[in-house]
C-alpha cells in the first residue's frame, strides 16, 4: 500500500482528497509534519481560494522548501487546483502579483471567458504518452476556478533539449488553459480529481501506480 501525505497548510479540500485517495487504496496521512512530507511515497498539495493566500499558508509550514526537497530527490508530488497553480512562477489576482514556488515558468491569471468562475464538468485534451490520463479518453472532470495558466513556455515547440518536455493537458473555457501537467516526479491538475467521480478515481489510481 502506497503511503501518501496530503500537505495540510490551511487551504484545500483535505477531507475529500483524503477519502478519494483512501478509496483507491492509498494509506493517507494529512499533516504538515516535515518528516511525513519527506518520507511519503507521494505528496499531494491541495489548494482552494486565492493564490497569494495559499502561498502565505504554504510558506508558514515551509511548504515550498519541502516540495523542492522532494522533487530534488525525484520523489513524486501531485498538485490539485490552486495546489497546481502555486507551482508556477507567479499568480496575478485583482492586480496583486504574488510569487509562487517557481517549479515551472508561467503566470496564473484570470481566464478570458464569458462566464466565471469556470464551474462544472469539462473534457480535456491529453497528450500522447500520458500516464495520468491513461484509459480516460473523452472523460469529463470537475473544475471550479476563475484563474489558470494560458501560456506554458516549457511546453512550447522549440529546439531540442536534453530534458524531456512536460506532458501538458489542455482544456477550454473561453480561453485555452493548462488542465494538467506531467513532468517527471511533479504532476498536477487544475480540476479536482477527488470530485470527478470514476474518472477522477482512475486518474488518482494512475498516479498511485507511478509511486515507488
From TrEMBL:
Transmembrane segments: none annotated. It is found in: Cytoplasm. Residues 6-207 form the Glutamine amidotransferase domain. Its EC number is 4.3.2.10, 3.5.1.2. Pathway: Amino-acid biosynthesis; L-histidine biosynthesis; L-histidine from 5-phospho-alpha-D-ribose 1-diphosphate: step 5/9. Keywords: Amino-acid biosynthesis, Cytoplasm, Glutamine amidotransferase, Histidine biosynthesis, Hydrolase, Lyase. It comes from the Bacteria. It catalyses: 5-[(5-phospho-1-deoxy-D-ribulos-1-ylimino)methylamino]-1-(5-phospho-beta-D-ribosyl)imidazole-4-carboxamide + L-glutamine = D-erythro-1-(imidazol-4-yl)glycerol 3-phosphate + 5-amino-1-(5-phospho-beta-D-ribosyl)imidazole-4-carboxamide + L-glutamate + H(+); L-glutamine + H2O = L-glutamate + NH4(+). The active site is at residues 81, 192, 194. GO terms for molecular function: lyase activity. SUPFAM superfamilies: Class I glutamine amidotransferase-like. NCBIfam families: IMP_synth_hisH (TIGR01855). Heterodimer of HisH and HisF. IGPS catalyzes the conversion of PRFAR and glutamine to IGP, AICAR and glutamate. The HisH subunit catalyzes the hydrolysis of glutamine to glutamate and ammonia as part of the synthesis of IGP and AICAR. The resulting ammonia molecule is channeled to the active site of HisF. PANTHER family: IMIDAZOLE GLYCEROL PHOSPHATE SYNTHASE SUBUNIT HISH. This is Imidazole glycerol phosphate synthase subunit HisH. It comes from Blastococcus brunescens. The gene is hisH.
